[in-house]
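Why run this: before we spend reagent on co-expression, it is cheaper to look at a predicted model of the complex and decide which construct boundaries make sense. The entries below are exactly what would go into the expression plan.
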Amino acid sequence: MATDILMPALSPTMTEGALARWVKAEGDAVSIGDVLAEIETDKATMEVEAVESGVLGRILVPEGTQDIAVNTPIAILVAEGEAVPDAASASTTTSEPKSELPTQTPVEQPPSAPAHVASTLLNAPEPEKDWGPTTEITVREALHDAMQAELRRDPDVFLIGEEVAEYQGAYKISQGLLAEFGDKRVIDMPITEHGFTGMAVGAALTGLKPIVEFMTMNFSMQAIDHIINSAAKTLYMSGGQMGCPIVFRGPNGAAARVGAQHSQCYGSWYAHVPGLKVVAPWSSADAKGLLRAAIRDPNPVVVLENEILYGRKFPCPVDEDFILPIGKARLSGKGAM
Amino acid sequence: MTAGQKNVARVGGNGPSLTREQFIDAFHEMLLIRRFEEKAGQLYGMGLIGGFCHLYIGQEAVVVGIQMTLKDGDKLITSYRDHGQMLAAGMTPRGVMAELTGRATGYSRGKGGSMHMFSREKNFYGGHGIVGAQVALGIGLAFANKYRGTDEVSVAYFGDGAVNQGQVYESFNLAALHKLPCLFVIENNLYGMGTSVERASASHELWRNGEPWGIPGRRVDGMDVAAVHEAAAEAVAHCRAGKGPYLLEMMTYRYRGHSMSDPAKYRKREEVDEVRKTRDPIEHVRRILMDAGVSEDDLRKIEDDIKATVNDSAEFAQTSPEPDPAELYTDVLLEA
Ligand SMILES: Cc1ncc(C[n+]2csc(CCOP(=O)(O)OP(=O)(O)O)c2C)c(N)n1
Ligand SMILES: [Mg+2]
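The model came back. Tokens follow.
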């Protein structure tokens, strides 16, 4: 069966090219992989290889021709001994070659935003749930209690980071957790942020729920590629198949007298990444409620804590089930209408 | 180190070769990948596949030989040169081709493309575009195996170019430190884009790169599916037995450019031709099968079969719808 050889697209941006040189002549036998011709693309001179064996029956576009649109028949390949048709037919190996590169379907109207976004904005805020009695605890205790509660609740949750286990936490957030949960679930890491963050993200893709503690968020920059390219984007790039339930947490923002490398806020960096959720709790109640929600969330969540607040006390509900929703503002007090 | 030179250090013993049935299976799998990739190249040429597209042609024996030593539940991860891995893992040619052409019926519903496909069912974890990232993610898959107390193994494939990334060595350390069941496979096709191993690595014995952490390594003829199988069987058994990671350097070669738009000026055409002529992994097995008395007719039947499968995948891809533009906004976050 005669087959048309078409002008190939040889780069992502090529729409037309020039036929620089025919390497094979009419009547030449060709086998798979042989170079047939040289083509100049918008980027470089490239070789066109035969994708089927046969005889080069007829050259349709002579060498030296410029501006040949992609998918124009440039030659006809026939089987040994077969008659050569005069002109290109429709009998290409693949059905229906399009006459030009498919252009993107123009989006006339921006696709409508998912309905629930609009409705949450318009609805009146629900009243705060009343969690009952509170007690004064530090933000440090609140974060500790949140991890302890979630480690107790779900065996797929584990904590990794530098000095989180035997040292009891560089900022003592994980104090006592090693003793309660053992070294299988509270795991010291060497100083290798890029490596252990990638490892944790890989584990999360299988459905485990790691909490990655960065000694401070400043060092998350070593691992930012995995936070963004591996954790935040995989759900989208897998068409919704592969979520990444993981928490990246640690002290962020201003710290006292440590210089610019240890005193930086990542709020707007991470908040601009689609596929990441970011929370930055202030009080003990917010810290406990939001960290618990972050650990249960099926998405990657960055929890930005603040070192200066770790020792501050705030009232926090004592209810064992206390948790706060991510993405809902707290009504702190009513302003003038 | 030249492409034609085999330069294969046989560290382990010469284990049993493959049976005739295994050779037939390997022939089938390798040829499926070869024909599928040729078709992908054609569709790219027609403008039906856009963006980057990295073909696996020439390297088929690596993934096929390794896959034959794995069992259900073992996990896989690789770079953007992933079509061969996916077919070997049992993902459907239709789903892969549809994703290549950006269709809603593709593995990532048209949102991943050539470099990013995944399958939970087949334990294929992508499909990653950041050179070296899959190695750290790969030890995470192995970490999960160990955490869950299974004897499953994870395989992390990466290139000779990726070998120079820092996170690869962070991963070697972590995998050895925690005795993770991770098989590291370097697919040494002699080039990272246009840079040869000689111009990129101070040491050319990549199989020894795990030595500082006590990771056993072997260099293997990656164009010989039986040699790959033998080495992989030993390595996988090591990982499965809880002895920690293992490193295989597969000496292989890619026939096509790095991606579709590679003018390939860094190597001579004769170099490619020589490998094709003297070391082609599929022709090698074809000869073994013919010597073993498999008839030309039987082989032709396999070839026809594969041609039909591949054509069907192309037809399916081209007749599938493109994703709705509103899909741009879905799968960004899961409902909490
Ligand atoms: C971190 C990073 N740097 C650079 C690139 C661009 N890039 C893509 S593939 C590649 C070459 C990689 O070669 P190798 O690891 O040998 O794999 P092969 O393509 O040979 O399979 C480069 C430089 C990238 N994708 N990611
Ligand atoms: Mg390479």
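The domain at 2-312 of chain B is CATH 3.40.50.970 (Rossmann fold). Chain B is about 40% helix and 10% strand. Bring this page to Monday's planning discussion.
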